[in-house]
Design a protein that fits this description.
- The protein is an alpha+beta fold.
- The chain is 20% helix and 34% strand.
- Strand 17 and strand 18 form a beta hairpin.
- The chain is globular, with a radius of gyration of 24 Å.
Length: 474
Amino acid sequence: MDVPSDYSSTGTALGKEVGFQYVDGSLIIRGNGEESYIHDQDVIAVVPDVRADGKGEAQPQLILRLTSLPMSPKGTTSRLAFEPLAVTNLPQSYVEKHRLMTAPNHLRVPPNKDGSQNLYVIVSTRSGIGEAWHFFEDILSKALTAIGVSHEIGREMYNVHVTDSEKSVTEMVAKVILPRANQGIEQTVILLSGDGGVVDIVNVLLSGSRSDKYVKPTIGLIPMGTGNALATSSELNRDGTRGVAGLLRGVPQSIPTFTTHFSPASVFLTDEGRKQEPLPIESGHRVVHGVVVCSWALHASLVADSDTTEYRKFGAERFQMAVKQLMEPEDGSGPHVYVGKITLYRTDGKGQEYSEEIPDTKTSYIVATMVSNFEKSLTISPASKPLDGQMRVLRFGDISGADVMRLIGMAMTGGGHEKDEMAQYAPINGLKIEFDESESRWRRVCVDGKIIQVEEGGWMEVRRSNKDILNLVA
């Protein structure tokens, strides 16, 4: 078939003359009797080749791409490699699709007068299956260098911070990022982490004092967690570049947040549930902020039970393993049905808020979420749009374990669960739960992966927030 001229061209690849053809989301390269493909989903960007001497008429360019390795050598990550391809005279349509002429503004943050940098890379070593450092070293640092954002000695344009504890991110934000934001200094944090890293940043910024000069920091998220709900729902995970294309070619947008208040004796559970820590206090209340989900019942229990070193080795499969144990207890008793009074806060047609108490006090599953997906294959809230700021509730009442699994199965295979007669799904401003459980394990609440245990007879209330304190590149 005839291919329009802006979709085909003759140029060079690795110094050899080839023909290019851009068809159906793939660049076809033909030369010397061979044919190869570069798929759009693997392309980070097309950038000027700053290594070239500039001689000749054709502008030298680099296709920044990730390729799959045939096997995973020790010290590499996820069977991916960074392989830039030197080319000239690409088809115009291909260049327009992927072109990046210079590093975006959020990666060209001015340094301070003393030379200290305001562009940071935070590598969360504990996120997911522990691949963040290798991904930074093998892929991200090389992609940044290719667009002129260097970390060479004497030319450092960003600082690298590697976490060594669960408090590393919060300590850095409290000591460095929040004070500089309050001085009106522009900052960008490239975060190789799961949702938990973003939540740590949000909690420090929202709980701290913000001055009139406050400038919102910007997060560039490279998803390294197990579920990566925020990245997936913000479409950072829509291609095969693990968020690198989004970091280089996206734009900063406000991250919607929510705030959860807890009854006075509620505590964080840490160290795989063996230790307790107090919740932060704001204006006399126990408070935890979030960006993804606040949950109780099955969802909170499976997150809590699967958050162990042993389970984390299995990646996203750990959730399915925990679900199986909760739905099929060894004593044969069947899945637990959680008891508590739930009140929804909604808005009527005139814009007025009203309260709606759910008559049934027995619940199998309930989440209040700001995102569409908990995982790539788990679309929990189909009506949610990227960063739209609308909280929605999904609840299953007193139904059988088989029906719970059927509804979750529908969520993992394209949706429809939200329309099922056994599910309650609606936009809300927030909700309150008053717990009626004697056993502590059934009073665990999940806020973006953090587990809070509520005291007997206690309560929690979550509401979406109107505070605009952080950007996400998306």
